[in-house]
Amino acid sequence: MSRLTTLDLSFNIFNGTIPGAVGQLSELKHLQLRGNNFEGSIPWEIGNLSNLETLDISEMEIFELATIPEELGKLKDLKELRIIQLKLIGHIPETFSSLSSIEYMDLSINSLNGSLPHSKLSLSKDSQKKTQEIDDWKFIPFRSTNLRESEILLNLTEENLIGSGGSGNVYRIAVRENRSHVAVKRISNDKNLTTIWKNSFLQNFRH
């Protein structure tokens, strides 16, 4: 096990807590735990996985009142981070400013608050300006998708509603090509559809 480079336990029925011993898999590069019944908290020991490039701990709804361990900021080689729909609270750790290799991050469907830490993420000047101007919606780098307007409209349902405000509702739309999500906002005052092409889109939905 010490030479294991990929551990994918996605979409099983594992329960209990995620064992801290996973942090001893020193050669691990890819850790996928999405869609299980784990509970408790994200083990801080994952921060010891110095070779880790992708981490997905998502869609486990019984992590209530847990926070993101600051030790994850030590993952210098981390390129993709998905921590989605865990009901996490608190702030995004300041240590995330040290994630110098990060290319993709999705922290959506949690109850996190505050701002993204200043980091080396390669945001465009326009994105940086929007991040500063819109305090309640914190954007991060994204990848474009091939979603068609018809697919988006079909998914504007009550089931996918994740937020609302004075100008319209926000919906969570699945992107099958890369198993991620985008936030789509429908502007109520002019019937136009505005897509917010940010895979890791919101820290909360008040605006």
Automatic annotation (TrEMBL):
Nucleotide-binding as a keyword? yes
| One Pfam family of this chain | LRR_14
Membrane-crossing residue ranges in chain numbering: none
SUPFAM superfamilies attached to this UniProt entry:
L domain-like, Protein kinase-like (PK-like)
Chain positions recorded as ATP binding sites: K185
- One example GO MF annotation: ATP binding
Per its UniProt record, what InterPro entries does this chain match? Kinase-like_dom_sf (IPR011009), LRR-RLK (IPR052592), LRR_dom_sf (IPR032675), LRR_R13L4/SHOC2-like (IPR055414), Protein_kinase_ATP_BS (IPR017441)
Q: What is this protein called?
A: Disease resistance R13L4/SHOC-2-like LRR domain-containing protein
- Origin organism is Anisodus tanguticus
